[in-house]
Amino acid sequence: MLNVCTYNLLNMLMMNYQEIAQTIRRFLIEDFEVDPEAITPDATLKDTLDLDSLDYIDLIVAIDNSFGIKMKPEDFQTMNTIKDFYDFIDHQLNQKITA
Questions:
Q1: Which residues lie closer than 8 Å to 28 by C-beta, 6 or more apart?
Q2: CA–CA gap between residue 48 and residue 46 (Å, rounded)
Q3: Residue 90 CB neighbours (<10 A)
Q4: pLDDT per position as a tens digit, 12-68
Q5: CB neighbours (10 Å) of residue 99?
Q6: d(CA 9, CA 23)
Q7: Does the model's pTM come out above 0.70?
Q8: 41: closest CA among 94, 80, 12?
Q9: Is it the case that residue 10 has pLDDT exceeding 60?
Q10: For the chain, what are the domain ranges?
Q11: How far apart, in Å, are the Cα atoms of 70 and each of 15, 28, 62, 89?
Q12: Is residue 17 left, alpha or beta, with left meaning phi > 0 and alpha meaning psi from -120 to 50?
């Protein structure tokens, strides 16, 4: 029998790309008040999110809560677009599956 934590972790790991994008989109809109129209794959992460350093900490917490992924602020340096953000999360979840 699976406990609740194990079940939630399995659900996170089995997310498809569309579910990842929807989850990120939801917390950007709800928690960071990003305009839904601004969240497109080609939108630049920095300009769209307009986050300060404290917001990045909140974003890291939201990512951990939503996906079980531990990020560092410097991880965002490799991301230019919203699509890069989606791809990063997708890659991290796939790494967990194969680990």
A1: 34, 39, 49
A2: 6
A3: 17
A4: 556 789 999 999 999 999 999 999 999 999 999 888 888 787 888 899 999 999 998
A5: 5
A6: 15
A7: yes
A8: 80
A9: no
A10: 4-98
A11: 17, 18, 10, 10
A12: alpha
Distance from the Cα of residue 51 to its chain's centroid: 15
Scanning the structure block, which residue is given the tokens 């967990």?
Answer: 96
pLDDT confidence of residue 15: 78
pLDDT of residue 12: 52
Nearest to 80 by CA among 38, 49, 36, 34: 49
Multiple choice CATH, 4-98, 3.40.50.10540, 3.30.450.20, 1.20.1540.10, 1.10.1200.10:
1.10.1200.10
Residues 21, 86 contacting (CB under 8 angstroms) = yes
Q: How is residue 91 written in tokens?
A: 């890659």
The β-bridge partners of 81 are 44
- Determine contact, residues 96/13, Cβ cutoff 8 Å: yes
